[in-house]
Amino acid sequence: MERTGVTAEPFFSATLGKRMLIGAAIGFAVISFFVFGADDPNPEWGKYWRIRPLAITPLAGAGAGLFYHFMGLLRHQGGWVSIVGWIISILGYTATLWVGIVLGLDGTMWD
């Protein structure tokens, strides 16, 4: 068997885990601003209405961190491809986090 010098990196690396944790922390911080800032919640939302947004939005933030990690292939190409990679990374992260906020607040603050 001949070696070609190509090594396969593991799917889950320390860098991926760090980016997912940072994404989840940003998601938690953003949704906490809305959830804990609700002075007078609607009684129809139930007693534990805060659990859903505080669980879903950080998960979406972790998914956004995963997306950002995989866009690193484009960001490190150089030239205009790198610029496009950065734009796609930022827009993709923002859109994923936005969807997480909407899904988390659906039925409560987001009607």
Structure, explained:
The radius of gyration is 18 Å and the shape is elongated. With 111 residues, the protein is mostly helical. Helix 2 (51-70) packs antiparallel against helix 4. It is built from 4 helices and no strands. It has a domain at 50-111.
Task: Write a concise synopsis of the structure shown.
This protein is mostly helical. It is built from 4 helices and no strands. The protein has helices at 14-35, 51-70, 72-75, 79-105.
Number of helices: 4
Low-confidence stretches: none
Shape: elongated
How can the largest sheet be summarized?
none
Strand content: under 5%
Quaternary: single chain
The first-to-last residue Cα distance is 61 Å
Any descriptors?
mainly alpha; 111 residues
